[in-house]
Amino acid sequence: MEQTIHTPETYDFRKYDQIWRRVAPNLEPYPDLREPAVPAMAPLASGAAPRASQPPAGEDLEHLPGAEENPCCMGTMAQEELGVIEGFIEVELADRRTYQAFARRAPAFARGTMRDLANASGAAARRLMTAYYLITGNCYRPAVASGRISIDSWCPALRERYHVEACNGMNYLRAGEETTDPCLGRLLKELGEESYRQADQLMALLERAL
User: Fold this and answer.
1) With CB atoms 3.0 to 4.6 Å apart as the test, which of 63, 92, 117, 173 could cross-link to 124 if both were Cys?
2) Least confident range of 15-24, 81-90, 96-105, 167-176
3) InterPro entries under this entry (predicted)?
């Protein structure tokens, strides 16, 4: 495995942009950093369970299990953020899968960190899915990912992952500031700080690899 940056690669946001365009097409999580037009992700395969962002037809919000008419946290005010939450869940699950692949192919000194990053992304996805349930009373069903993840060169791969985590941190903090739900805002800000810590871990690995 090559461990130099003699063959630098241009960072490509399209993979994550496709996720956001599918779950929240009106958002721009990577302002000024991506190409203006990216095709939408293909729809789920036939038979896959759809995700419900709104309560089932004919069922009022106050009749959902455990819901109140106007709860102070993770309730009515957070309903408008469901698309954002779905996008973050899909991104974290994609990151988890990527880090698991990296852990199998990384240099020996980096494998433990890659496993830690995979676990952190999985934990973030679970926290977000818990928030989704608190808001809607429904379990979120993520898309089933497929396809092989390749690592052509170690240092460019670390560079790409650093930018992903830094942008995740920026988007979490921005979403946390914009929501009117205090508990959701606190959760998003915590996840933003965690993403920045993960970016620092990747930067440390890159420093060692150069």
Assistant:
1) 92
2) 15-24
3) Ferritin-like_SF
Condensed to tens digits (0 to 9), the pLDDT of residues 31-51 reads 555 554 444 444 444 444 445
86 domain residue, yes or no: yes
Question: What CA–CA distance (Å, rounded) separates 67 from 62?
Answer: 5
* Contacts with 51 (C-beta within 8 Å, 6 or more apart), sequence order: 86, 140, 141, 142
Of 82, 102, 210, 79, nearest to 164 by C-alpha is 102
DSSP string, 118-131: HHHHHHHHHHHHHH
> CA angle 184-187-193, nearest 5°?
140
CA atoms within 13 A on the CB side of 202: 24
Q: Is 108 helix (H, G, I), strand (E, B) or coil?
A: helix
3-state secondary structure of 24: coil
Residue 22 lies in a domain: no
Find the domain containing 115 and state its range.
76-140+151-210
Q: Residue 196: inside a domain, yes or no?
A: yes
- pTM assigned to the model: 0.68
CA distance 5 to 154: 8
Q: What is the mean pLDDT of the chain?
A: 79
